[in-house]
Each structure stands twice: as structure tokens, then as C-alpha cells.
Design goal:
0% strand; Complex1_LYR_dom
Length: 89
């Protein structure tokens, strides 16, 4: 049973890191900050869940969100925008 928890924990952490990495790729400052905040909040909210079925469904939802974020980042990179004053150059 402990091996299952360790494997699922590593998969969850891998998904978390991938989502944060993709979230930092958004060209718009507002999207980057929103994605980072939303990802962290969602993972913190669900960190105490131990039911394998619930974890599996949340992982599926996270994978779907990751794929959507990848599509949005690639679309956002096609169009240039001016940087906000708050952004570093």
C-alpha cells in the first residue's frame, strides 16, 4: 500500500510542476499570474484527499487542464502584445 501512495504522490507532484511550468509560459502577465495562483490554490485545496478514486478523477481533470493550457499558450504565442508597466523587461 505504501508503494501505491508514493507512486501516486510522485505523479501528482509531476503534474503540479508541469502545470506551473506551462503557466509561466503565458505571454500575458494577467494569465500567468492567474494560472499560477489557481494551480497552487487547487492543489492546496485537495492535498488531504486520500481516496484513490477521487485522486484518479482529479488527476484526469488535471491532465485535461494541462492539455488545454498547452493549447492556450501556443495560441497566445502567435500574437504579440505590449507589456504592462508591472512586467520586467
Amino acid at each position: 500500500m505504501a508503494v501505491f501512495k508514493m507512486a501516486s504522490r510522485s505523479e501528482v507532484l509531476q503534474l503540479y510542476r508541469q502545470m506551473l511550468r506551462i503557466g509561466r509560459s503565458f505571454t500575458s502577465y494577467n494569465y500567468r499570474m492567474y494560472a499560477t495562483r489557481r494551480i497552487r490554490d487547487a492543489f492546496r485545496e485537495n492535498r488531504d484527499i486520500s481516496d484513490p478514486d477521487v485522486i484518479k478523477s482529479l488527476m484526469k481533470k488535471g491532465q485535461d487542464s494541462l492539455e488545454m493550457m498547452k493549447r492556450q499558450v501556443s495560441l497566445g504565442q502567435m500574437y504579440r502584445h505590449t507589456k504592462l508597466v508591472i512586467e520586467k523587461e
